[in-house]
Amino acid sequence: MGRMSSEIQSTRQLTVALRDARVMQKLTQEELAQRTGLTRPWINQFEQGKIANASISRILLLCRELGVTFTVSYNVPEQSPATPNHSHGISDTRPGGSSDSSPNGSSKESEHR
C-alpha cells in the first residue's frame, strides 16, 4: 500500500484529506463512526467543512483510525555565533573530557541512530 502526501494549510484541506483517506480505505462514514465512537452526522458535517472548531482530539482520533500522520514544519531563526544553542538539551561534561547529553548515559549522536 502506497502513501499519499499533501501539504495542509487550511481547515478545508484537512477535512478533504481525511475524507479522501476514508474513501480510499473503502470505509463508510458509519463504519468510521463505529470505529472512533464519533457519530456519523458529526463525521458528515466535518467532512463537509461545516464544523468550524473541531477539537484537535477528535481530529487526531480520526487520523489514528485512518492511518493519517502529521508532520510539523516550521522556520527556525539562524543563530549568531555568540548565541548559545540550548535546543539540544543539557550537555554534561565529565572528568576526562567525555560528554553526556542525555539522562540515560547515551550521547545525542547515538540517540538519533
Automatic annotation (TrEMBL):
<dbReference type="GO" id="GO:0003677">
    <property type="term" value="F:DNA binding"/>
</dbReference>
<protein>
    <submittedName>
        <fullName>Transcriptional regulator, XRE family</fullName>
    </submittedName>
</protein>
<feature type="compositionally biased region" description="Polar residues">
    <location>
        <begin position="76"/>
        <end position="90"/>
    </location>
</feature>
<feature type="region of interest" description="Disordered">
    <location>
        <begin position="76"/>
        <end position="113"/>
    </location>
</feature>
<dbReference type="Pfam" id="PF01381">
    <property type="entry name" value="HTH_3"/>
</dbReference>
<feature type="domain" description="HTH cro/C1-type">
    <location>
        <begin position="18"/>
        <end position="75"/>
    </location>
</feature>
<feature type="compositionally biased region" description="Low complexity">
    <location>
        <begin position="96"/>
        <end position="107"/>
    </location>
</feature>
<dbReference type="InterPro" id="IPR010982">
    <property type="entry name" value="Lambda_DNA-bd_dom_sf"/>
</dbReference>
<dbReference type="InterPro" id="IPR001387">
    <property type="entry name" value="Cro/C1-type_HTH"/>
</dbReference>
